[in-house]
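User: For my dataset I need records formatted as: sequence, then C-alpha cells, nothing else. Please produce one.
Assistant:
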Amino acid sequence: MKELEKYDFDAEGLQQNALRRLISKGQNTEYGIKHLFNTTKNYDQFIQNVPLNSYETLKSDIDRMRHGESDILWPGVVKWYAKSSGTTNDKSKFIPVSNDGLHRIHYRGGADVVAFYLFNNPKSHLFDGCSLILGGSHASNYNLPGSLVGDLSAILIENINPLANLFRVPKKGTALLSDFEVKRDRIAHETIHKNVTNISGVPSWMLSILVRVMELSGKNHLEDVWPNLEVFFHGGIAFTPYRKQYEDLITSSKMHYMETYNASEGFFGIQNDPDDHSMLLMLDYDEFYEFIPMDEFGADQPTVVPLWGVETGVNYAMVITTSCGLWRYTIGDTIQFTSKNPYKFIITGRTKYFINAFGEELIMDNAEKGLAYACEKTGTQVSEYTAAPVYMDNKAHCRHQWLIEFSKEPSDLQEFTTILDKRLQEINSDYEAKRFHDITLQPLEIIKARPNLFNDWLRSKGKLGGQHKVPRLSNNRKNIDELLAMNGD
C-alpha cells in the first residue's frame, strides 16, 4: 500500500521509470535494434523512433516468436500466447505473454487486487477458505515443448505458484477443460461443499456456474451454499447488465464486488474504492500508456499523448507498451478519465464496438447505462445483447436494431424500448440530434432473443466459455444477422 500511495503524487515519474525499463530490456531485440532503442533516452525520442502498431503490423513477428525464434519483440524465447478474439480481421489474435509479463504485470495485478480489498475490508476472512477461479483452456503451440496457446486465465492457472492451489478450486484439470458445459457441471460438483470465500471470473460465465451450483444444492440463495462468500473479483465485460442478477442470487449484506481491468494484453486497472465505480490506472507495472482522442482515431497522424497529457471527460483509445513485446500497441479499448492524481478511469467501449452509421457516435458506455436505466425502471434483467444499424430504406428510414436475451422479461416490451431510446438521447447528444423528430433516425427496435441464443452462437464458433465475449455494438450487420437467423427471425 505504501508503494501504491505514490500513484497520488508521482504518476509521471512511475510511468517514466516503466518506459526506461522497457526500452532498456528491449534494446538488444530485433525490434529494439531496428528502432534505435540504444539511443532512445526519453519519451520524445521514443515516439520519434517507434511507430504506432496494431496486431496486423506485429503479426508476422509474433508468428516467428510462436515458431520458437528468440529476441524478436522481447528478449529470449516467449513460450506462452494468450488467444484472443475481437479487433482484428483474423479469427484470433495470439498475444505474447513473456515471463516478465506474467510476473511483472498479470500476477502483480492479482496481488494488488487482494491488497486493495484487504485494505478496504480489514476484517476480511478471505484466506479462511478458498477461491473459485474460473479459467479457460489451453493447447500446445505448434507442438513446441513447453509452449502453450490459449485463454490468458488458463496460462495464469498453469503457471501459478503451487502454493496457490491450496486456496483454489476447482482442481487444475477441471479448471482447464475446454468443453464449457462439462466444465460447468464438474466445477459445481467439486465446489458445492467447499468453503468458498471469494470468486473470480467473467460475470456471464461465472453466473452460469453459480446457477448450476444452485440447481444442485436446491437452495434459494448462494450464501446458503457458501455462507462465508464475501467478494466477487470480476472483469472482462461490463458488470452492469449482470449486477441485479447477482444481487438476487446473493442477498448477503457482507457481499462485495470489485472490478478489475485485466486483458490478454495486460493488467491495467483496479477498482480501489468500493464507492467509486471508476478504476485506478496501474502505473508501476511493466506497462507504459499513451492515449489517442477518439475523434482522431484512425487518422493518418493522430494526436497521441502520454498519461500526463490526458484530460478528464475525453474518450481515448488506449495505446500500450509492455514487457510482452507490445510496442506502442493499440489495444482496441476506449477509456475516459474521471480524475487525475490519482488517475482513475472508466472503460467506455471498444474502438470497433460502436455504432456510428448516421453520425450518432453511440458507444458501449452509452448502451450499458441506457440498459441499466431501462432495467431499473421496468424490473427487467438482461442476460446478453447486441445491437447494429438498420440502414436507410427507400423512404430514408433507418434505426438501431437491438437483439436482447432477457433473464427477466419486461411486462411491456414497447415500454422498455421507449425508456431505453429516451435514455440514450439523454446521455448522448449526437444520438439525440439524429433522433430529433424521427427525421434522420427512427426509434430503436428491440427483438427478443430465445433462451441461450447467444451461447448457441458462441458454441457454433467454438467460443463458448473462457474469456470470449459477445460483441455488444457493431457498425455492420454480420453478427446480428447470424444471430437473427439462429433466432428464427
